[in-house]
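Chapter summary example.
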Amino acid sequence: MKYGLNSEQGARGIEVALVSVVLLFCAILWMVFSTTDNKTIIDLEVRDGVATIPETPLDHGAIFALSGPWQVYWGHLFTPDDLQRPDAPEPSGSLRLPWIWRGHSFGDEIAGGTGAATFHLRLNPPASNTMLTLHLFDLRLAYRLWANGTLVAESGKPGLDAANEQPDRSLVLAPLETTGQPVDLVLQMSNHGFREGGIGDPILLANAGILQNARDRVWIFSAFFCGVLLVAGTYHLLIYFLRPRDISFFYFGMYCLLIIGYAANSNSTYWLSRAVVPGWINPVALDELALVCYAMSGAILYRFYRSLFPSDFSRRLQMVSDLRVVVFLLSALALPPVWHSWLIMLLMLAGLLFTTYYLVRLFVCIVKRQPGAILLFSGAVVLASTSIHDVLVHTDVIEGEYMVLTGLFALVVFQSSALALHYAKSFLTVELLSEDLHHNLDALKAEMNRRRELEAEVVWVSEEERRRVSYQIHDGLCQQLTAARLRYSMLSNVAAVKNIPAMVELGRMLAAATEDAYALSRGMWPVEHDSTLTGPTIEELVDSARRTSGIEINLRQNWPCASCAGEHLSVFHRIAQEAIANAVRHAGATRVDVSLDCEGGLTRLEVKDDGAGLPADLPSAGTGGLGLRIMRYRASAIGAEFSIRDAPGGGTVVRCHVQCHNGTYAEGAS
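The structure predicted for these 670 residues follows.
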């Protein structure tokens, strides 16, 4: 119990350490890949539609926001030539950027959520020649920007209505070369797909190179983020396909791939997919792919948590999580694009509710000391914080950059760490089980060896007992019977009893009894098993069986040793004796071939007959009756390989072979 407590405390300490490492890692990445610092963005002061760019901050790397107010020509898409005509129209009003125009009053007209307008702003640049860069919107809009009548940037095709508008999504960095003279900026813009209308991001201006570096940092981080997710997703899916019992790896791999689909096709990565996908793919399709991936990722995330902690996450709420995805996708197909932003906001709010539920349930898992709960809870906290920030940005409550990638990256790293910790514990468990298995296997091997030694000792004791009884019969009963026969021979020469039938019968009985006693003695302990005697008495076994059965029994021997003291010959003799008896009594054989070889370090015995073969109901293991079991037991006791099978062409063949450890083999080999 004390060991279990210490190991549990150690696991929680590892989780806390991993949380600290992951947070530090994410913080370093955020500092390395963060874009511009919002404190360095300066709103240009505008008076009477003219904004003056201060030279000193510009030279020190400042970034200016062309916030305005801009002059607005509401409901019209004018070109610079239109505004320079003598009868040029008067502005409808003014509007600061970024801003929404829904509900804004332009003269007698109040703007709705959709519409088109022309914006005008005059810049007073520094007196010297300066190469500047304009950072335009990274939203799905349609606009054109002129500088002193020259078209410097465009995205899509602006239109007065949705039918004539061709929106596109792109981040444009437009070069702007100034010579110290005022620069007139004319911006045509239409927005028929956003819920509030207007412009959600400011137009930024800085010296050449500054905004490019900021964009490149975003792209590098985005590519790094998507690459990490691609590797993590592929890796965990491969683990699942190799080990499909653990569904959490499948959900995590799918979640990583869905986040790639969302992140690479959203403005949070400056439309990273545009740099890798073919240009003929419709940007609208990529937008829809991003929405589908974002919606499905929430359902997959819930399933991931529930696969790890099934008793702590509601199954019914999982159905609700899946249902919200279906409702969102059906609504996105049925409603016009202008409603999509509202659907996204509702989906984000639903995601916040589920994130709150995740936090509560994961905290409960921490209290229950569930493994990996601390890591998953920390990731959920980071994601919840960034999600709340992005919802406030999306609803225009606050201004700022979307932080969803940072939150998702932290969540994925925390989840990967939790799965890695789970996998490491599994490996540790397997290693401990493997060590126990090896210990048990060694103990089992030792027990098997001890049992084999005991079995061999039992066989040896049995054979010794046979030898003792054989010698007692040979030296006792056989000698007494022989003496009786001699005494009978002496009595049979007496004329008075020589031809009496009873005496003749008694002589025949004594001769048969003496022969049987000697046969019993030889059967219990063949002569060649005695190291002091020679002679292949297996021949006597074959001769005796041939005489008794009356069938053809052949013997073939290849015995190079002049004198064999092999410790296994008695076992081979018994197996051959039983195999011949089975062939004669049960198989109905007419011929039996026996071969005994000692060659190449192996002693081999084979007994083959032409009888009826093995019975059909013989068990597959070949255990058979008592005789077969005894043969197998004798063979296993000396470590021999034993088999009994049907012989080709009919009959049965019994084979047994064992390593020969006879010391006289090399000396007596011919």
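To summarize the output: The chain has three domains: 2-33+219-419, 40-208, 536-668.
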